[in-house]
Amino acid sequence: MTLEGHSKGTLMSVNNLLSYLIGWGELVLKWNRKSEENSHIELPETGFKWNELGKLAQKFYGDYADLDFTTLCTKLNQTVFKILDLIEQKTNYELYGVTWYGKWTLGRMIQFNTASPYQNATGRIRKWKKIQKNNQQLDSVNE
């Protein structure tokens, strides 16, 4: 638990970060499934509001807490491939020609809720690596 967490002042593990990415990907797939069934979609997730994303992150951590790193990586890859398949099955018009949620198109919602978390994760890992490198340098100076 050394990465900056999704809620202010918290820490998370790499497994938590993978769980977060899987969670958002699975939500996007769930939204699409419900939309195709003409079912009501609660965004971002049942029981959560858009201003409670830190709590939603905690839910994702718990959802996948029993999975090891290798299994999480496999599940993340599977989720990514399902999202790519979803995108390939949609026309440009279905993705960007009509509003899907409020003023947003389906394509933008997919982007906001998959690409943005990946960019966020990359930034967290870069920051973490920089801190680890600085700590190692300090340790070698203090020896």
Write structural notes for this entry.
The protein contains 5 helices and 4 strands; from the N terminus they run ββααααββα. It is mainly alpha-helical and 143 residues long. A hairpin with a 2-residue loop joins strand 3 (99-101) and strand 4. Helix 1 (14-36) runs parallel beside helix 3 (69-89) and helix 1 packs antiparallel against helix 5 (106-142). The protein has helices at 14-36, 53-63, 69-89, 92-96, 106-142; strands at residues 3-4, 11-12, 99-101, 104-105. It has a two-stranded antiparallel sheet. The mean pLDDT is 89. Helix content is 68%, strand content 6%.
Report the principal-axis shape: elongated
Described by strand count, sense and barrel closure, the largest sheet is: 2 strands, antiparallel
The run of helices and strands is EEHHHHEEH
Strand content: 5-15%
Number of helical stretches of at least 4 residues: 5
- Overall mean pLDDT: 89
| Alpha carbon gyration radius | 18 Å
Uncertain spans: none
The helix/strand class is mainly alpha
**Percentage of residues assigned to helices:** 55-70%
* Tally of strands: 4
Strand order of the largest sheet: 1-2
Q: Report how far the terminal alpha carbons are from each other.
A: 25 Å
